[in-house]
Design goal:
Shape: globular
Largest sheet: 6 strands, mixed
Helix content: 25-40%
Radius of gyration: 17 Å
Structural class: alpha/beta
Order of helices and strands: EHHEHEHHHEHEEH
Strand order of the largest sheet: 3-2-4-1-5-6
Number of helices: 8
Strand content: 5-15%
Amino acid sequence: MPTLILVRHGRSTANTSGVLAGRTPGVALDERGAAQAAALPARLAGIPLALAVTSPLQRCRESLGPLLAARPGLRLETDERITECDYGDWSGRKLAELADEPLMETVQQHPSAAAFPGGEPMREMQARAVAAVRDWNARVEETSGAEACYLMCSHGDLIKSLVADALGMHLDLFQRISVEPCSVTVIRYTRLRPYLVRLGDTGDLASLVPREDAGGAGGERDAAIGGGAGAA
């Protein structure tokens, strides 16, 4: 099955202003986020990508702009299922203000029970994200083979929920996971279980580049991408 490269969008204006953006339109990358996006093509250089899938929100599309410019043949798909969690009435509010909301303790300590007023439950966010990944895994394998890599650009909570699923962790533990803006998280899916290859990586990704002497299915290439049981 394919390898999924998850990219959190670059730092946004909402990140720097301490606002819970949610699905609020018009939230763009800030100067730092634009620089992070500009560095992404070099970080991913040499890694073959079957396609890229993005959340429809502006900050994700902007994050992929430089990569798409550097790889004009890379197909881009948009999937609503990997958009930001619907925070409902909380969207656009200051995080410092939301810290005093009784629901925030549930969000942090028991997120599987958290449902945002006027929005969605966090467990539904995870369910749609996992369904999207399983769907794209099957599509990519059918069109590009089991050894293919593809990329998704999405949001922090959604990526954390996918990592929790890959590790067999309950959603109630996902707040222990951290993914920084424009970080790369890599999950290698196999028939029996996924492997977490990278988590919130903001540095060099050269070790993910397939080796020239890579063997057949699952052989040397698995070692090159860190797909073994001891992957860090």
